[in-house]
Design a protein that fits this description.
heterodimer; A: 114 residues; mainly alpha; 4 helices; B: 89 residues; 3 helices; 0% strand; flat
């Protein structure tokens, strides 16, 4: 890997984006593994993991915009696609779970069924 | 700095993938497994992008875009199947 001629501030910014993205995605997956019922588990991946992957993609966008001439549009395309599709898939999953009447823990509020 | 951080971030994403695999194998209901599969796809995108930066090739984003597309379509199709008993009515 050649990082020739990259300003130290940009280097630091990209490194920070990558590290923060990894940490936030790890927290989201930890929530997916440890939460007690499905409706709580849905929060972890759909919010935290999307933010984490968005951070990594932003760092990648900055890196490749510096390496190649001009703005790297492809990375922005992946980010845009991910940010538009994550709420849709989460909504579909929540609807499917409500339809199947999956059991919830007692402290999950606003249950539409008993 | 970037060369130092990329292996750490890859390790973090590998841990996240292991947690998703745990939920995928153990999930009590079908929706848990679908959610774990969706998260697995999203974390794989980040891992591919990190590998792209590390190798410095700059064309692996196409694979990332394909995986994002496949993950979204398969998640919606499986949710739709659970919801309605059919994918395309």
């Amino acid at each position: 890997m050649t990082v020739t001629g990259m300003p130290w501030l940009l280097d630091l910014l990209i490194a920070m984006f990558l590290l923060v993205g990894g940490l936030v995605a790890l927290i989201g997956s930890f929530g997916l593994a440890k939460m007690p019922d499905f409706y709580m588990r849905l929060h972890g991946p759909t919010k935290a993991s999307t933010l984490g992957v968005g951070c990594v993609l932003l760092g990648s966008l900055l890196y490749f915009s510096h390496q190649q001439a001009g703005l790297s549009v492809q990375e922005a395309l992946v980010t845009l696609f991910l940010f538009t599709t994550a709420p849709v898939s989460a909504h579909m999953l929540a609807k499917a779970a409500l339809h199947r009447r999956i059991k919830a823990v007692d402290r999950t509020r606003n249950k539409p069924f008993d | 700095m970037i060369a130092l951080v990329i292996p750490i971030a890859m390790g973090l994403f590998a841990l996240a993938l292991l947690m998703n695999l745990y939920r995928l194998l153990l999930g009590p209901d079908m929706t848990d497994r679908i959610l774990a599969m969706d998260t697995l796809m999203i974390n794989t995108i980040a891992l591919i992008v990190l590998a792209d930066i590390r190798m410095g090739v700059g064309f692996l984003f196409e694979a990332a875009l394909l995986i994002a597309l496949m993950g979204f379509v398969s998640t919606v199709a499986m949710s739709k199947y659970l919801l309605r008993g059919d994918v395309i009515e």
